[in-house]
Each structure stands twice: as structure tokens, then as C-alpha cells.
Amino acid sequence: MTVSFRNLAARRETGVAVLLGLTVAVVAGLNPAFVSGANIRDMLVQCAPAAIVGCGLTFVLLTGEIDISLGSMMGFLAAVMGLATSSQYGNLPAPAGIAITLAAGTAIGLLNGVLVSVGRVPSIIVTLGMLTALRGLTELIMGGKWISGIPPGLRYLGTGTVIGVPISIWVAAVTVVLAWLFARETPAGRRIYALGSNPKAAVLAGLSPTRIKLFVFALTGFLVAVATLVGTTQLSVIESGIGVGFEMVVVTSVVVGGASINGGKGTILGMLLGVILLGIVRTVLIFLNLGETSVYWERAIQGAFILVAVLMDHLASRRKSAEVPT
Amino acid sequence: MKALFRRYPHEWILVGLLTGLLLAAWRLDPPFVSVGTQAELSTHIWEMALLTVPMTLIIITAGIDLSVGATMALCAVVLGMTFERGTPVAVASLLAILTGLACGFLNGVFVAKVRVHPLIVTLATMSAYRGIAEGLSLAKPVSGFPASFAFIGRGEWHGISVPGLIVALAMLAAWVVLNRSVLGRFLFAIGHNETASRFSGVPVDRIKLLLYSLAGTSAGLAAVMFVSRRNTAKADIATGMELDVVTAVVLGGASLFGGRGRIVGTLLGVLLIHETREYVSWRWQNDELILVVIGALLIVSVLVNTLLTRRQAVS
After folding, report:
1. ipTM for the whole complex
2. Is A122 part of the contact surface with chain B (CB cutoff 8 Å)?
3. How many Å lie between the alpha carbon of B156 and the closest alpha carbon of chain A?
4. Contact at 8 Å (CB) between B64 and B118?
5. In sequence order, what are the residues at sequence separation of 6 or more whose Cβ sits closer than 8 angstroms to the Cβ of residue B288?
6. Which of A57, A73, A76, A121 to mutate to test the interface with B (most CBs of B within 10 A)?
């Protein structure tokens, strides 16, 4: 693959990277504290859960499916983790709690996958149903109470640091690198792209859509569990509202990063850039000192970012298609 | 009878489920099935029922609109803020509906002209419209609307509920469009094969622009009904409304891949969700259980429908 300037300019990753770079440069110019070590760390910690889950969702989108149950899944897994390990409930040791959470996440993801690939129910329906049902189930098993008494071993995942860097950032970094390598360098990763780009050709070439879809949904469930372990243990209590709206954050980030919901298109790098771009909006608003009311505009700006990203794509592709002689 | 069943398998499943639910409810809690109770509970669904009408049309064309709840919130905020600044409530309501039209038109432009997948467009505008509603109102509620304004949301006209009448008219109009008009045929054509429709001269872009504008306008009207009934306008109203609406339409048998959907099915979907929700909350006073039941209902009904149609195709 040759890297030409035009090639680079036409890619969504470049557009998002430029937008991100400009945003950071402008805000840092106005308020240098924005790029202080402490603030960068805080912003990355905020982005970590979405980056971890984004890896799984990128693969789901690549196969042409979607998963919007992520937020409720996170809430449910946090409740499971809390009930298993809290000193007032299960009182299991931290490693057992971690194992149970990861197993539960994988199982729910697998259930999504079975309904989609074996039951042939459209993934948007399955995960929409799960989004509703799991939120209700979370509130049922928590009985309207907050869970406290999370063991220190688990709290360490959310609050601890290794060489001065929070564990959630380490986990997100390792997940992103592994996912990037998996997507680019392994046969399994290429099969996912193949299935999404041309499902019929993939089946004729001997790939099993059922197995690939089971895998990507189970992987996403597993990664939601990972994100839950490092993302919801920062606070000392677990409440039933954890993860509300999280699915929208992840889906929009991945889409801003260039993934197509028709499948076959999307990269881990684009996902990461999208997650960071949307994740820093609130912090940017605070550092711009526009007054305390400005954070109310966070969602409006996030929505505008997506529209700008798709508009840029539209204009770029129109210019490109105009160049092609007909 | 058999032919009728063959022709509308999904509708019969819904009628069966609804009858079963009401019979069980009648056996266990007779007061729940009385006319008085049902009339009282019916006020909870008018906005949702109204929005399922344009949503059915959009889903038939293989589109979706996730921004209806956010549009409703933005329209409610416009209504509240213009009223607060001394605009007569009738004018404020009109402004709210126009805001809905503008929101829907923007969705339509992105879907039809920019050709972005409607799921992405309306996911973006869902954030954007809700965000603008929050930003404009700073999340503060407005109340104190005149008593006469309540007519739209909970008034009666010759003994018929006004919002109920609005919903009934909307459903009737949609039924006529879908079953007795060229436009209706075009909607199914677009849903089945958009490219072929374009080549056949169906004005696909204009129709999509119209449909999304219609959804926005309906959201504006729903916002007026909601504010009128609750006497309060706030940026967080109708959160999750889009999921309820899509669930009802899909439960009603419409396919998200387009080309399939009926107004009668949608009506049954709305009724089934409504009765399930109200009965679970009546009997167990448990809002959490409702979510589990409705989520499961959605997946199971589509699963059963898929299995049935697959077997039919094989035989």
C-alpha cells in the first residue's frame, strides 16, 4: 500500500486527527493547564472505558451488525460484580469477583450473538431489547439500594496506578494495541473485514458468518466486563444508573472514527481518535471558561461533531467521484 | 378464517397475546379491565402512540428516526421559553411545532441529500437536539400554563378524549396513505429496493424529506400535548421515547430492513406495550420488572415471527 497525500486526506482518521489536534491546540493556547500531565491523565481515564468497549464494537460494526445494549450491560455487570464481592452481600474475594464479571459479560455477549446469528433476529432488535431488559434486571437485583463495601482489591483496579499511570489507562492501551494487531495482522481479523465487505463472497470462500458473529458479540461482552472492572470501581459505591447512555457514547465515537454501519469499513485507530474527540468535549468546555452553564451544551457539541464528520466525508467523496472519468 | 390467519400471522399473534394478557388480568384483578380504569390509564400513551405513526412509515422505507424524543424535548423547551417571555400560548405552541418541523427537515436533508445512514444521522441529532434543549433552558422547567391550554393534552370533545382523537386521525390518515394511495406503494417500493425505485422514477429523496419532516412535526405536536397535559416543559422529557416508539412499531410487525409494516400491527404493538406496562405496574407496583418484560417481549416476538416465516418459506 502506498501512502500518498491524497490517500491520507481522504481517510476519516486524518480528518478526525486534524479536528482533535486543532481542538487541543486552541484550548491549550487559551489555557495551558489543559495540557498539564494531571489533566491529560484525567481525560484519558474518562476515555478508557469507551476505548476498551470501542474495540469490540468496531468488530461488531465491521461484520455489519450493531450492539446498543452496551450501557445496560455495563450497569448489569457492575451490579453483578458488586453483589458478588461486597462485604454486605456475596463477600467473595476480588479475583473471584473479576472472574464472575468477565464470565457474565462474555455470556451476555454470547447470548446477543446467538440471537443474532442463530435466531436470525436483527441485531438492532436484539440489543435494543437487551438495553431495556438488562436495565430493568439491574434495578431488580439491586432492589433500589446502592452497593457499597467493594473489596480493596477491586477498588485498586479503578484507583491504583502502575509507574504513575492509572491502571484503567494501561488496560485500555493494551486492549487497543491487541485489537489493532488482531484486526490488521491475524487471519481471524481479516476474516471479519471480509465478512463485512462482501458477505456472499465470504460465505463462498468458506467463512462461517455464524461463528464470526458469535465471536464478535462475545468479545464485546467480555470487553464491557473489562471496562466495568476498571471504570466503575473508581467510586466506592455502585448505583443502578451506571452506564446509562454509554452505548450512545461508544457508538457515536466509533462512527465518528470512520466505521460504517453497513459493515466492512472501520479501524481501531479511527475508533480511538473518535473516543478521545468526543470524550474531551466536557473538559474543553470547562477549560474555555465560558461560564458554568457551558457544560449544558456538551451533548449539542457532540452531536454537531458527528454531523460535521459525515458532512466532510460526503464532500470528500463527491470531489473524489467527480475526478473519476465516466 | 384460515386465509385471514395466513395473511396476517403477526397481527394474530399480537391479538392472542393481548387477549391472553387481558383475560389473565381480568381473572386476577377484575378492576383493571374496567372501562373507567382503562380510560384513566390511556392518558399515558398518546404521545408515544402519535409518534409510532410517522415511525411506521419511516421504518417501511428501511429508515429509522432515533431523534423523536430529543425533538420533543427541544420543542417543549421552545414552547416553555417563548411562553415565559410573554408569547400567547397558542403562538408558542405553533412555534414548538415549527421547531419540530425544522428538526425533522434537517434530519431529512442529511438522510436524503447527504445520503448518510438514518441511524447515524438521527443518533447525532438525538444528541444535538437534546443538547440544544439543555443548553437553551439550562435544564430549568417552565410551568404555569393557562388552564385552557390543558384542552389539547387532556380535554374532551363531545365526550371523546382530544389527544385520543388526534392519534386516531393520524392513524387513519396513515392507513389510507399506506393502503389506498400511490405514495403508500412508493414507501413499500423504497423499502424493498431503493435503487430500483429511483430508476423507476419514484421521487425517493423528496419522499424521505417529507417523512422525516413529518416525524419532526409529529414530535412537535406530541410535545404540545405532553406539556399541556403535565403543565410543565423541561429539557429531560421524553427520554428514551425513541426506544418505546421503535419497540412498538417493530413489535407490530414492521421490518427494520424495510418493505414491511402495517398500521394495524403498530396499533396492536402500542396497545400490547401499554397494557403490559400498566398491568405489571398495577399488580406488582414494580417499574423495573416492566423493562425486563418489554425487552423480552420485543426479542421473543421478533424471534417467533422469524421462525414462523422461515418455516413458511421452507414449506
Report:
1. 0.77
2. yes
3. 34
4. yes
5. A136, A137, A139, A140
6. A121
Question: Strand, helix or coil at A103?
Answer: helix
User: Cα–Cα distance between A60 and A57 in angstroms, integer?
Assistant: 5
**Structural contact between residues A67 and A129, judged by C-beta atoms closer than 8 angstroms:** no
Alpha carbon distance B204, B207 (integer Å): 5
User: Between A and B, how many CB-CB pairs are < 8 A?
Assistant: 141
* Residue numbers in A near B119 (CB within 8 A): 66, 124, 261
Strands (E), chain A: 161-162, 165-166
Q: Identify the bridge partners of residue A147 per DSSP, sorted by sequence position.
A: A238
Nearest CB partner across the interface for A136, out of B243, B246, B291: B291
Q: Among B174, B155, B271, B264, which Cα is nearest to B218's?
A: B174
Report the distance separating Cα B298 and Cα B289, nearest Å: 14
DSSP letters along B47-116, please?
HHHHHHHHHHHHHHTT---TTHHHHHHHHHHHHHHHHHTT--HHHHHHHHHHHHHHHHHHHHIIIIIS--
Q: How close, in Å, is residue A92 to chain B by CA atoms?
A: 27
Per-residue pLDDT tens, chain B, 315 aa: give them: 667 666 777 788 888 888 998 888 888 888 888 888 887 788 788 999 999 999 999 999 999 998 999 999 999 999 999 999 989 999 999 999 999 999 999 999 999 998 888 988 898 898 899 989 998 988 889 988 888 888 888 888 887 889 999 999 999 999 999 999 999 999 999 999 999 999 999 999 999 999 999 999 999 999 999 999 988 899 888 877 888 898 899 888 888 888 889 999 999 999 998 888 888 888 877 777 888 888 888 888 778 777 776 655 444
Residue A85 forms contact with B (CB below 8 Å)? no
Domain ranges of chain B: 44-239+255-260
B28 at A interface, C-beta within 8 A: no
CA distance A247 to A131: 9
Which chain A residues have a beta carbon less than 8 Å from that of B74? none
A69 inside 8 A of chain B by CB: no
How many angstroms separate the CA atoms of B4 and B17, rounded? 17
DSSP symbols for A135-186: HHHHHHHHTT--B----HHHHHHHH-EETTEEHHHHHHHHHHHHHHHHHHHS
HSE at residue A89, side-chain half, CA atoms within 13 A, is 20
The H-or-E segment that residue A323 falls in is helix A298-323
Q: Which of A281, A306, A308 is the best substitution to test chain B (most B C-beta atoms within 10 A)?
A: A306
Measure the N-to-C terminal CA separation of chain A; round to a whole number of Å: 25
